[in-house]
């Protein structure tokens, strides 16, 4: 690897913190400028766009040869080797409603493999980080998935696709099978925070269908490095993933539909 990953990590952390600070200046304010994208369940705010501008301008000035995939501005290709995969604000619906679970997610791939991930939740002041092969950390403390083995004591989360109102393939079938078995079901509203919460043992499992690479790139490295089991449970709905502590994941995976089920 040509460049120092620890230096990349330090830079990504500082961009995530800078973007997070800007998000907090908008949070619970009146100048969000909420706009619908695909529909009213798929929105973007001025804070998403400003966060993205900040992160991308740092990449352009420090690493001009690197490629970028970022939610609001799409794909920019400069080199085949390094690609930054960015969700400048994950949890926009929470953010726009004044709920505190939202974050910045920055992953870095080298020749297609994620080598570094940063997820920063500014209101919660929680920074999740990982460099491939070096473990996963929450605010500098090493994290690991939980050790629960009994599904009746498991607390798990999920999410629902943005086309849920027009497409019956909307995760309700999976929910109806998992919900009766677990201690608690949560809908936290930020895929990156859900994945990091499994990584830290706060949740025993999380699944969602129809996610995108920017939602999961940083989080999945953190999860892998924290000992999580990662299963891509279907191939026809973008990124559809179950992230779990291994014992609970083994029980939940067979409960998830592997194809549209309606
Ligand atoms: C969304 C969040 C949400 C998940 C959606 C994502 P966004 O991302 O991660 O939890 O359920 O599928 O699109 O739009 O807030 O970046
Ligand atoms: Ca997202
Ligand atoms: Ca987003």
What labels describe this entry?
single chain, alpha+beta, binds D-MYO-inositol-1-phosphate, 262 residues, 7 helices, 5-stranded mixed beta sheet, binds calcium ion, 8-stranded mixed beta sheet, 28% strand
Please explain how this structure is put together.
With 262 residues, the chain is an alpha+beta fold. The protein is 31% helix and 28% strand. It contains 7 helices and 15 strands. A hairpin with a 3-residue loop joins strand 3 and strand 4. Helix 1 runs antiparallel to helix 2 and helix 5 packs parallel to helix 6. The chain is globular. It binds D-MYO-inositol-1-phosphate (IPD) and calcium ion (2 copies). One calcium ion binds next to strand 5. The site of one calcium ion has 6 residues, from strand 5.
Order of helices and strands: HEEHEEEHEEEEEEHEHEHEEH
Q: What share of residues are in beta strands?
A: 25-35%
Report low-confidence residues grouped into runs of 5 or more: none
Bound molecules: D-MYO-inositol-1-phosphate, calcium ion
**Principal-axis shape:** globular
Rg value: 18 Å
- The oligomeric state is single chain
As laid out across the biggest beta sheet, the strand order is 4-3-5-6-7-8-9-10
State the total count of DSSP E strands: 15
Task: Please bin the fraction of helical residues.
Answer: 25-40%
Number of helices: 7
Helix and strand content put the structural class at alpha+beta
What is the straight-line distance between the termini?
47 Å
Largest sheet: 8 strands, mixed
Mean pLDDT: 95
């Amino acid at each position: 690897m040509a460049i120092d990953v620890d230096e990349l990590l330090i830079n990504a952390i500082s961009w995530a913190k800078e973007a997070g600070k800007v998000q907090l200046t908008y949070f619970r304010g009146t100048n969000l400028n909420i706009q619908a994208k695909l529909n009213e369940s798929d929105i973007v705010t001025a804070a998403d766009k400003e966060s993205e501008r900040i992160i991308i301008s740092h990449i352009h000035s420090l690493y001009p040869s690197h490629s970028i995939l970022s939610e609001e501005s799409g794909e920019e290709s400069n080199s085949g080797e390094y690609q930054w995969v960015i969700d400048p604000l994950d949890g926009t619906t929470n953010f726009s409603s004044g709920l505190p679970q939202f974050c910045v997610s920055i992953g870095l791939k080298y020749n297609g493999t994620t080598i570094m991930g940063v997820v920063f939740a500014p209101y919660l002041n929680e920074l999740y980080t990982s460099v491939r092969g070096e473990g996963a950390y929450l605010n500098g403390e090493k994290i690991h998935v939980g050790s629960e083995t009994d599904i009746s004591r498991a607390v798990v989360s999920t999410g629902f696709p943005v086309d849920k109102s027009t497409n019956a393939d909307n995760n309700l079938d999976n929910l109806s099978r998992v919900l009766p078995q677990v201690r608690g079901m949560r809908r936290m509203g930020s895929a990156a925070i859900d994945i990091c919460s499994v990584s830290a043992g706060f949740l025993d499992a999380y699944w969602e269908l129809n996610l995108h690479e920017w939602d999961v790139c940083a989080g999945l490295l953190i999860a892998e490095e924290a000992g999580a089991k990662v299963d891509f449970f279907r191939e026809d709905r973008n990124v559809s993933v179950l992230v779990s502590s291994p014992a609970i994941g083994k029980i939940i995976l067979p409960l998830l539909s592997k194809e549209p089920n309606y």
